[in-house]
Amino acid sequence: QTRAMISGTHMQQVNPDLRVMASAFLVSDPEYLNQLSNSGAQRAMPSSDSGLLVNQRLANGNLYLLGQYLQPLNAGGKETFQRVPELGHGFANYAPFGGPALLGMDSRAAHFYREQGFQISRVDLLPSFSTEQWQIGHVVGFTPQIKLRETYYTHSVASAESTHRETLWASLEAASSLARRFDREGGRSMLHTIEPKIVYEYVPPTDQSEIVQIDDVDNLTKKNLLTYSLQSRLLGQNEKGMTRSWLDLTLAQSYHLGSVQTEARQFSFPGSPQYGTATQPVQPRRPLRRRAGI
Known about the structure:
The chain is mainly beta. Helix content is about 5%, strand content about 55%. It contains two helices and 14 strands. It has helices at about 30-35, 40-45; strands at about 5-15, 20-25, 45-55, 60-70, 80-95, 100-115, 120-130, 135, 140-155, 165-175, 180-185, 190-205, 225-235, 245-255. Strands 1, 2, 3, 4, 5, 6, 7, 8, 9, 10, 11, 12, 13 and 14 form a 14-stranded antiparallel beta sheet that branches.
């Protein structure tokens, strides 16, 4: 029996704004890695991932074209969705009329094909609104941000009818920065900074029982989260003005307000015929019963 593996990556910088990246990871049969690989991580892979990404940088964002092929190994089969193609565009921190409001937008449209089972297309729109940092006494700065999300599907879990979901993500960040410079002989210096930060995030619960689970776009967990962190950095500067980082330490902890964060649904184990994961999106071979969301 002839067995083989093709693996490699390539990146081509066509011009300063256009980049093409390609990767391949293909095996002759699903048992190849299980029987011949010395890597435990490779033997446990649910699928191998090959893809092509074309990214064009724009004045205020970027435009990309993505194609992805998942070869089932330990899970999946002809029911595995293939992303052919995905087209996306994004821009951030655009200030209309030079005002304090900052606008952003991430949009992407994808078609998912598979040999067995229904196909599906998805459009995901994510506009964002924020402001410049509000300073209070030049000591603490506050940054509010909100993102609205609308996702449209041409197929639902149990029927050929289209479905959609609306949700939002809101946050408020409070940050401060303390710095002190220590002059050294020969024109050298050391800069020590301490930056405490607190971030509150909120995502409401949504009913996702009619949504086909393909990747992380389709499953959004509710969130009522407070994260506090402390970052300390030590930077050195020589007599020529060149800087070097000597220390960059960050300590962070998150706290779920009210209760422990829960998933939108209880997921089955990887490889389950009911639901897949972001790396191995497996869909059912037969129609599913409706499941209630949060």
